[in-house]
Amino acid sequence: MSFNILISDPLSEDGIQPLREAENVHVVMETNLSPEELEERISEFDALLVRSSTQVTRSVISKGKNLKIIGRAGVGVDNIDLDAATEHGVIVVNAPNGNTNSAAEHTMAMLMSLSRNIPQAYLSLKNHQWDRKKYVGVELRDKTLGIVGLGRIGTEVATRAKGQRMNVVAYDPFFTEEKAEKMGIGYGTLEEVIQQADFITVHTPLLKETRHMINGKAFEMMKDGVYIINCARGGIIDEDALYDAIVSNKVAGAALDVFEEEPFMDHKLLELPEVVATPHLGASTLEAQEIVAVDVSEDVLRYLNGDTVRNPVNLPSLSKDVMKKVEPYFHLAEKLGSFLIDLVDEVAQEIHISYAGELYDMEVAPITRNTVKGILKRHLGMHVNDVNALYLAERKGIIVNENKTSTAKGFTNLITVEMKTKSQVRKVSGTLLNGMGARIVNVDDYSVDVRPEGHMVVIEHTDQPGVIGRLGSLLAEHDINIATMQVDRSDVGGKAIMILTIDRHLDDPALKDLDELEVIKEVVAIDL
Ligand SMILES: NC(=O)C1=CN([C@@H]2O[C@H](COP(=O)(O)OP(=O)(O)OC[C@H]3O[C@@H](n4cnc5c(N)ncnc54)[C@H](O)[C@@H]3O)[C@@H](O)[C@H]2O)C=CC1
Ligand SMILES: O=C(O)CCC(=O)C(=O)O
Q1: Distance in Å, CA 459 to ligand 2 centroid
Q2: Which Pfam families match (predicted)?
Q3: Which ligand is the nearest neighbour of the Cα of 347?
């Protein structure tokens, strides 16, 4: 069997040698296709290889009648519609390790350019100015580097910064005091890290939680004269807030490799002399480009030839029979995981999943993967899927186990997810009702009946008259409509729980007002 492969972004010619040498493969490199041309041509191909420029949209994927695999020569897969790929049975692979070193080195280059005004001084000299006073810099030695996101790249940056004799302090939800001690660096919350740092560098994926995590409020907490570096993703730092912070001299300078919108020709941040910038060059080295191209090429060949891939980003293949039985539970499992992680609002240390009733006789491993995916997505983002969820959990030191029991408390099937975090153990159970979809039926030891979807508020309160009325009025004051309400209590006048589904996200002002009500012990907003 022979396969057609389209490479639509510039990839290292040495890196794609495995493809060029394969006998059953025909490679077409077309790096200037418009989105319309890509949609028109994609049905000719079995595989598509991209970097970050090609937008692999739902429309491209749905027109790819022969498309079997998409290879991303790099880490971030935010230019590929993963849901659409999964829905269309197209596997996505990436190259998560190949550009770590280059991205870390680029970060260090940006850090040093910033501290010593190298780009500005170079431009000045090119303009025939010999200005030594204007470009006095600051030393890195004994300064504190705050790292937000201590994954592959963040960790490499930490090691290099220590080599510059900097103090390093990091925040990552998966980072612990013990790990910090082993690495010889400091550990703190996001606030603590940004308050202590002289230089701040971000290395998280761009997620709902990380979008604008460095915003106006964060800048206010920082030291005067702080320096900011972003070689991860545009959007983690609020560009408008950064602009204001530089103009007001709160921030002494910023080094940016990535932007909220790319590519661009003009950008207001680049009008500021304190900003140094590169056009998304973090991974642009000969070495990284060769390694990432080799990695994806090999995975693409493996897959086309029927072998297992090394770096899957989305779906595994299950036998049709197993799939038919377990697939209906995937959605419920993922929602239970997402519900629980929102409820605890802390990183999971242990996850115990219990399957009861008719699930007793099923192959539940794929359901477990979906549950863990729901939990990990909160911090690791869209690239978590049921293929890599357990691998990522293991990498993050999270214990995952499952057990089966025949007692399903009167339900025909029941999934119970219990999560242990640093400070609490919480659990949630759900079931699939025949013909009526998924329901959450227990939260901790309370019985409820809620569809796991949309915007929710979980409120722990004291069982006493008037609570429901006060809550209802308060939400009405914030123009929030209650769609459904479930209440249960431990005993009369004791602890009670209320789960509301509401028509829009519970925003911070409403959350704060609810939290201030005396009868309320805990209020959590959940968006599924
Ligand atoms: N400029 C460029 O050319 C390149 C950019 N990148 C980008 O760099 C970023 C990091 O890449 P890797 O280190 O390979 O990824 P990684 O997955 O190894 O590390 C990301 C880390 O961020 C942490 N994180 C998630 N949510 C967080 C939060 N709310 N606060 C703090 N930490 C959080 C995760 O726990 C994880 O440890 C990605 O966005 C990637 O796309 C990667 C390579 C090149
Ligand atoms: O392909 C590139 O050059 C971008 C690399 C990148 O941003 C990534 O790997 O996430």
Answers
A1: 42
A2: 2-Hacid_dh, 2-Hacid_dh_C, ACT, PGDH_inter
A3: 1
Q: Which pLDDT does position 514 carry in this prediction?
A: 87
Q: Range with the lowest mean pLDDT among 38-52, 154-168, 420-434, 462-476? A: 462-476
Smallest CA separation from ligand 2 atom 10, residue: 76
Q: How do the domains of the chain map onto residue ranges?
A: 3-96+287-304, 100-277, 318-440, 454-528
Atom of ligand 1 nearest to the CA of 76: 41
pLDDT surpassing 80 at residue 322: no
Q: Is the ipTM of this complex over 0.95?
A: yes
CATH number of 454-528: 3.30.70.260
Ligand 1 nearest atom to the CA of residue 103, by list position:
44
Name the token pair of 263: 């590519």
User: What would the 3-class secondary structure string for 120-172 be?
Assistant: HHHHHHHCCCCCCCCCCCCCCCCCEEEEECCCHHHHHHHHHHHHCCCEEEEEC
Burial 336-359 (b: 16+ CB within 10 A, else e): bbbbbbbbbeebbeebbbbbbbeb
> Which among 278, 379, 385, 395 is the best mutation to test ligand 1's pocket, defined by most ligand atoms within 8 Å of the CB?
379
Banded model confidence at residue 384, pLDDT cuts 50, 70, 90: confident
Which tokens go with 518?
């005396």
- Look at ligand 2, atom 1, and give the residue with the nearest C-alpha: 51
**Residue 423 Cα to ligand 1 middle (Å):** 26
Three-class secondary structure of residue 244 per DSSP: helix
Same CATH topology for 318-440 and 454-528? no
Percent of the chain with pLDDT over 90: 76
